[in-house]
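Incident log, structure service

09:12 report received: a user says their structure output differs between two submissions of the same chain.
09:20 pulled the input from the user's history:
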Amino acid sequence: MADPKSWNPWHGCRRYSEGCKFCYMFVLDRAHHVPESSTEIVRTKMFGKPLEMTRKGWYKIPSGYTLRVNMTSDTFLEEADEWRTEMWRIIRQRPDVIFYILTKRVPRIMECLPEDWGEGYENVDLNMTCETQRAFDERWPIFRDIPARHKGINLAPMLSEIDITPALTSGQIENVNLGGEGFGGDRPCHYEWIKHVSDDCLKYRVNFTVNAIGSHFVKDGRMYHIDSQELQGRQAYRSGLSHFFGKPQYKLYHPIDGHLLEEGELMVPRFNIHRCLECTSVPICIGCTNCGACKQVELMSMEQLLNMRK
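09:34 re-ran on a clean worker, output below:
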């Protein structure tokens, strides 16, 4: 089943660095019996997803929604150069939707931005991935100098201790996400590594989310083997290492008349109590889309869900 929270205008990727060794895309392609090779970069049938209309003549993707872009590829792949201009055009046509872009190919970002990028699009959240200290040290000085209205860092899969204080002290980073390696990977993630980043984000009041602790997790010298992605996420929540200081402020505009949208004009996230109660991403998530993947669905507001956690 396609992820309703993602927009993949193209599919397929090439391994770029050591963090790609056990890439989830290759694993999921095999599980879903995708006929094409995972290293074959192809334009997908969902290229126009953000512009799809309902029978009533309005966009299927509501105002205020967040779409994760190219989660089965990389937005800045060389093989996608011919399609990227059209991707940016679609993003401009939906100034009421937030587009979350994640990449390891930081050196290619500047040359791949649209001509009218300026200081960045208000509705684009640009994120770099780093898996080791070496990757951070190589990518951050480049990422630091790229203009963007919204920036974040993804430390996944975390393969070593990483000091990201140069990024945190820059004042540019709004969110940091972290995850251990899963999907068949056996490289461990250590509790102390996560705690270090958690403490630094707390110190500089930057949102920090531990998405999953990984399939091989080390704490107090003991190795834990956790194959289930759901259980990895639940343990990440129970670690208590995530911090949330408030959602970034996006200026979103009506796609027809261009007026600045107020809070009452944006979608209100709803959460499934049977799946979301122990999810660390709730404060920054768009909520349940009732896509049919869950057997039990009981929706409630974020406030109601957070009150149940107390």
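09:41 both user submissions now match this output. Likely a transient worker issue. Closing.
09:42 reviewer note: The longest strand covers residues 173-179. Residues 81-93 form the longest helix (13 residues).
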